[in-house]
């Protein structure tokens, strides 16, 4: 996608600069577009943990490049396993991280030391290219949902509510739920997006709003608590979100607050769709509420907020009462019964084992 007319991806390699890895520092958006240069696996681990890169598919792709950077220095069996394990511990909820590292290990274990670094760059590039094409297709398969709404209310805006950031900067390109929105907008549909602020880290008001603005998609930032009210008053035609892990029975882990949106959508008869690439499926678990590990982040993210002062300085200020404690679960799980359906690169399906196996029959045998 483009920033001010210049095409970007959210991660790339610079062969002219020692095969270093480049990312956009998402902790600096929307105030500054700053490109970071990562040269070893420690910097990659820091970028993932500190959320300089974030979004389930993107952290998988960046971790894959982190392994490639590490193997340039030491490509022994021991280093391969140790670095993959270290990168895999950086964030616990998004399964894409483990998916990408497992795919790298499968590709690299049979390669003799001496050839592994080049093979790792090639395998990481495959993961990145796979993600780009997958996300493009997700958008195509979601588009008919918005076309159907447009046909029901000709000439009126299609009001989509979204949570967190599921755009091109959360993936390698295009995004997941936002890929649907971009393709609808590009096809000329009158899409308008209600952007949940997404406290505590404001991925909605900082990142989604920035992305949509750069692409010219009409949008309005709302407080996280406003969605239910808007749904009660007929102001939301559809909820479109992404996910960090989908279980075999169709339960969906996503950014904290997604579950409350699904409850409100269910109560108001608003369709609630979840967009995901194959790399987000975890067929080894069933009950998402019990089985998906939920990342708990520093309570300061809840007690403080970061923003730009009127004279242009970016500052973090405490918003909670001095001395109060905070709790910061970063994700929650929406049970499958609240999900209208899933949008994947292979098409749409019910949020159920039968639905998923209809699109992914190769997972029938997985435990
Ligand atoms: C690609 S979109 C799916 C999810 O990764 C997204 O909705 C999300 O929850 C991201 O969380 P984050 O904590 O910002 O990495």
Q: What is the straight-line distance between the termini?
A: 38 Å
Major sheet: 7 strands, mixed
Query: What's the helix-strand series?
Result: EEEEEHHHHHEHEHEHEEEHEEHHEEEEEH
What is the strand content?
A: 15-25%
The CATH topology of the largest domain is given as Rossmann fold
Strand line-up in the sheet with most strands:
8-7-6-9-12-17-18
Radius of gyration: 20 Å
Helical stretch count?
12
CATH class of the largest domain: Alpha Beta
Give the overall form: globular
Give an account of the 3D structure:
By secondary structure, the chain is an alpha/beta fold. It folds into two domains: 2-130, translation initiation factor eif-2b, domain 1 (Four Helix Bundle (Hemerythrin (Met), subunit A)), CATH 1.20.120.420; 141-363, 3-Layer(aba) Sandwich (Rossmann fold). Helices cover 40% and strands 19% of the residues. It is built from twelve helices and 18 strands. Strands 8-7-6-9-12-17-18 form a seven-stranded mixed sheet, with helices on both faces. A four-stranded mixed sheet has the order 13-10-11-16, covered by helices on one side. Helix 1 packs antiparallel against helix 2, helix 2 runs antiparallel to helix 3 (77-88) and helix 2 packs parallel to helix 4.
């Amino acid at each position: 996608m483009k920033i001010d007319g210049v095409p970007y991806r959210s991660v790339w390699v610079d062969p002219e600069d020692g095969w270093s890895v480049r990312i956009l520092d998402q902790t600096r958006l929307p105030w500054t577009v700053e490109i970071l240069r990562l040269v070893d696996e420690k910097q990659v681990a820091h970028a993932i943990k500190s959320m300089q890169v974030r979004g389930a598919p993107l952290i998988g792709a960046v971790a894959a490049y982190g392994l490639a950077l590490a193997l340039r220095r030491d490509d022994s069996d021991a280093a391969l396993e140790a670095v993959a394990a270290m990168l895999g511990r950086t964030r616990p909820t998004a399964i894409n991280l483990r998916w990408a590292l497992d795919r790298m290990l499968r590709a690299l274990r049979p390669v003799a030391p001496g050839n592994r670094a080049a093979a790792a760059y090639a395998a990481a590039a495959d993961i990145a290219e796979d993600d780009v094409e997958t996300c493009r297709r997700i958008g195509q398969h979601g588009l008919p949902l918005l076309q159907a709404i447009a046909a029901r209310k000709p000439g009126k805006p299609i009001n989509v509510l979204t949570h967190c950031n599921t755009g091109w900067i959360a993936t390698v390109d295009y995004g997941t739920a936002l890929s649907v929105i971009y393709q609808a907008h590009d096809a000329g549909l009158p899409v308008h997006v209600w952007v949940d602020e997404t406290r505590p880290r404001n991925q909605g008001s900082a990142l989604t709003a920035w992305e949509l603005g750069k692409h010219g998609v009409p949008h309005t930032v709302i407080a996280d608590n406003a969605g239910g009210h808007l749904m009660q008053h007929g102001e939301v035609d559809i909820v479109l979100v992404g996910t960090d892990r989908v279980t075999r029975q169709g339960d969906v882990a996503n950014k904290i607050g997604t579950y409350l949106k699904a409850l409100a959508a269910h109560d108001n008869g608003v369709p609630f769709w979840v967009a995901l690439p194959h790399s987000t499926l975890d067929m080894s678990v069933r009950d998402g509420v019990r089985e998906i590990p939920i990342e708990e982040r520093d309570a300061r993210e809840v007690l403080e907020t970061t923003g730009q002062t009127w004279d242009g300085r970016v500052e973090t200020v405490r918003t909670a009462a001095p001395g109060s404690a905070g709790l910061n679960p970063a994700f929650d799980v929406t049970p499958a019964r609240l999900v209208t359906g899933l949008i994947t690169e292979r098409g749409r399906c019910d949020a159920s084992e039968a639905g998923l196996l209809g699109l992914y029959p190769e997972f029938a045998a997985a435990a």
